[in-house]
Write a structure and sequence with these properties.
mainly alpha; globular
Length: 167
């Protein structure tokens, strides 16, 4: 006898889909890392200036897009009162925000590594700001209170991205 309600079936399907998607995203990152190792690309070594600048140009655009998605998500969440939003919508919004934050952090880690490759042509303070943004973003990702504090991190990281894009 099936005792599940339509709501619990929907929740179960949603959670299964989210778990599958998260697993696939993690597998894709691991696969890319394995490909990089096979191609003798070590993210901890210095890259030639032209390669680092080229990678940074694209990564900064992608990072800015992720930050804008986080900004938009917060704006949408603020326009809809929590009482008006279903539990599933809240769960999906938080899940999506966490996935976008994780992608942004992956890019931010690469930005920091490329900035180290460009040092001393890039100011030490900028390299340090990228490291701090990554560290603070990682703490945000691991925080049980996320998205609290996300707005300040997004704004500070957006300023860093804008500064780097105009440098």
């Amino acid at each position: 006898m099936n005792t599940s309600t339509p709501d619990s079936s929907a929740e179960q399907a949603l959670f299964s889909s989210m778990a599958l998607f998260a697993s696939l995203a993690a597998a894709a990152r691991l696969w890319q890392q394995a490909r990089d190792r096979q191609a003798d690309r070590d993210p901890t070594t210095q890259e030639p200036t032209a390669l680092a600048r080229s990678w940074l140009a694209q990564a900064l655009l992608d990072l800015e897009r992720h930050l804008m998605r986080l900004r938009l998500s917060r704006a949408q969440a603020e326009t809809v009162r929590a009482a008006e939003e279903s539990r599933l919508v809240t769960v999906v919004r938080r899940y999506d925000d966490l996935m976008v934050l994780q992608q942004a952090l992956h890019l931010l880690q690469g930005v920091h590594q490329r900035l180290l490759s460009l040092y001393p042509a890039v100011e030490e303070q900028v390299v340090e700001e990228a490291r701090i943004a990554y560290t603070e973003g990682q703490a945000l990702l691991e925080s049980e209170t996320f998205p609290l504090g996300a707005e300040a991190w997004v704004e500070a990281t957006m300023r860093l991205v804008q500064h780097l894009r105009h440098e």
